[in-house]
């Protein structure tokens, strides 16, 4: 029946947390192992739910996934890859978006794939039209089936000239995972260039792929007949790092995030400094703390890399509710990613949502009835409340608001946090949070 998390707020979070491999890379690296003719090894693998989901999906397709009991490193052996039934696949699909990335690798290895309807955070419609268009351009045939799609390549997969209408992370990965073994050359214009995409490219290159990334969002892939395995250390989770950084600011605390990497957090660190947060970078991580005095308001736009990542926005909105003055956050990646602010308003934050593009540049959601700009006025005192965790980042923002608030909050749906935050409860307790997890019973 799930758990109830009771949070007694008002204590600064202080101490140290370690972030491991990125949720937005590790499951995709696991999928890439399907393309190899030899086993792969993936290191720095976090214990999060999306890794369990992909382990299950790979296993039903015959990939042997074993975990080193000491290091947690994964060995992935695709020697006996096979078809799986839609019910086997359904049983493992969970609430992740990764199943869509099995299309190319499964078509290359067994000629077809069943892809269940996708999960992932409920932050708008999240269509898969770009994925299906690029797959059809490679020569794939897509059929709607109950509970998902069936995809096959009766005439094989051939490289193509492609252009994405928007630099989608998932669709770019779809192209990479399909093009590396397609016949001939693929050119993708309008590609996403997030750090996790570069890491996936490095993995594919280790396997034998030939991929060139140009400075203008064009990626060129020369298909090869065979790929081998990889041995790779996943990049650390920049989104978890940014979440803990915001938690330090919101609770007036001081957190050293071991594994946080400046290179992948440049846009975040600029904003962190502008709002009044302090940080210090060393070779192993970054220390984040509240600089004292009032936080400063700002105007901020989320964007694709190298812009300010949309997954960083939610915890930072809580910090902005404590800044002196009016801030604006214009969400330009997802049309409907401010639903989480309702609970913050119930906790005392002053946040108004608007349909207009309130940032400095109009985005594709303007004049389309989406509440995608937030005006946040501060500082307001936060008080405890009861809430149900809506999604990963919105949920994290509720939790840190509750940790900073006066009084007690009760949160349900806490399991969602496991999708992207490894050992979340242990980390909170280690940082001195006054929290208690109890079972809701039947
Ligand atoms: C597992 C993973 O890596 N998740 C990340 C990934 O999600 P994901 O890969 O799903 O996000 P995308 O980059 O594809 O989505 C960006 C935008 O493109 C739109 N779109 C996308 C595909 C498509 O076929 N049609 C379409 O319209 C989406 O609705 C959204 O508005 O990138 C997002 C943007 O950095 C992050 O917030 C997610 O944490
Ligand atoms: C939106 C997110 O993830 P996903 O794409 O896996 O739902 C996220 O990590 O904030």
Automatic annotation (TrEMBL):
Stretches assigned to the Enolpyruvate transferase domain: 8-428
Which residues get modified to 2-(S-cysteinyl)pyruvic acid O-phosphothioketal? 121
Species source reads Citricoccus muralis
The Gene Ontology biological process annotation of the record reads: cell division; cell wall organization; peptidoglycan biosynthetic process; regulation of cell shape; UDP-N-acetylgalactosamine biosynthetic process
Protein name per UniProt: UDP-N-acetylglucosamine 1-carboxyvinyltransferase
Q: Which residues bind phosphoenolpyruvate?
A: 23-24
Query: Which residues participate in UDP-N-acetyl-alpha-D-glucosamine binding?
Result: 97, 311, 333
A Gene Ontology molecular function term of the record: UDP-N-acetylglucosamine 1-carboxyvinyltransferase activity
- Segments for region (Disordered): 69-88
- Residues annotated as the enzyme's active site: 121
This protein's pathway reads: Cell wall biogenesis; peptidoglycan biosynthesis
Q: What is its EC number?
A: 2.5.1.7
Entry GO terms, CC: cytoplasm
Q: What does this protein do?
A: Cell wall formation. Adds enolpyruvyl to UDP-N-acetylglucosamine.
Q: Which domain of life does this protein belong to? A: Bacteria
Q: Which gene encodes it?
A: murA
Swiss-Prot/TrEMBL catalytic activity: phosphoenolpyruvate + UDP-N-acetyl-alpha-D-glucosamine = UDP-N-acetyl-3-O-(1-carboxyvinyl)-alpha-D-glucosamine + phosphate
């Amino acid at each position: 029946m799930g758990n109830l998390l009771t949070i007694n707020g008002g204590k600064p979070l202080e101490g140290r947390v370690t972030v491991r491999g990125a949720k937005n890379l590790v499951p995709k690296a696991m999928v890439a192992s399907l393309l190899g003719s030899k086993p792969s090894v993936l290191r720095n693998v976090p214990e999060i739910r999306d890794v369990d989901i992909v382990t299950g999906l790979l296993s039903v397709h015959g990939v042997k996934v074993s975990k080193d009991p000491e290091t947690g490193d994964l060995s992935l052996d695709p020697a006996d890859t096979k078809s799986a039934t839609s019910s086997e696949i359904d049983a493992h699909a969970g609430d992740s978006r990764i199943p869509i990335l099995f299309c190319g690798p499964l078509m290359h290895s067994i000629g077809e794939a069943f892809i269940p309807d996708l999960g992932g955070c409920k932050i708008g419609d999240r269509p898969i039209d770009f994925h299906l268009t690029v797959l059809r351009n490679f020569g794939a045939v897509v059929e709607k089936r109950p509970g998902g799609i069936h995809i096959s390549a009766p005439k094989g997969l051939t490289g193509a000239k492609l252009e994405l209408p928007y630099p989608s992370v998932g669709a770019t990965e779809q192209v990479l995972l399909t093009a590396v073994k397609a016949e001939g050359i693929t050119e993708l214009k309008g590609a996403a260039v997030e750090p996790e995409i570069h890491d996936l490219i490095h993995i594919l290159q280790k396997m034998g792929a030939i991929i060139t990334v140009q400075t203008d969002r064009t990626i060129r892939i020369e298909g090869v007949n065979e790929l081998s395995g990889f041995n790779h250390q996943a990049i650390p989770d920049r989104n978890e790092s940014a979440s803990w950084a915001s938690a330090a600011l919101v609770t007036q605390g001081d957190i050293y995030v071991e594994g946080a990497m400046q290179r992948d957090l440049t846009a975040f660190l600029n904003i962190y400094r502008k709002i009044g947060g302090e940080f210090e970078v060393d070779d192993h991580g970054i220390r984040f703390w509240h600089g004292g005095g009032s936080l400063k308001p700002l105007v901020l736009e989320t964007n694709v890399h190298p812009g300010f990542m949309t997954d960083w926005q939610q915890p930072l909105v809580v910090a902005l509710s404590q800044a002196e003055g009016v801030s604006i956050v214009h969400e330009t990646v997802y049309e409907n990613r401010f639903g989480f602010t309702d609970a913050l308003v119930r906790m005392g934050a002053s946040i108004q949502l608007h349909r207009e593009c309130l940032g400095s540049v109009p985005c594709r959601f303007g004049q389309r009835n989406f509440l995608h700009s937030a005006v946040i006025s501060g500082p307001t005192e936060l008080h405890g409340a009861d809430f149900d965790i809506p999604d990963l980042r919105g949920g994290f923002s509720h939790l840190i608001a509750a940790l900073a608030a006066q009084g007690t909050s009760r949160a349900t749906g806490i399991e969602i946090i496991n999708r992207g935050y490894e050992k979340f409860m242990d980390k909170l307790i280690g940082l001195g949070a006054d929290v208690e997890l109890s079972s809701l019973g039947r």
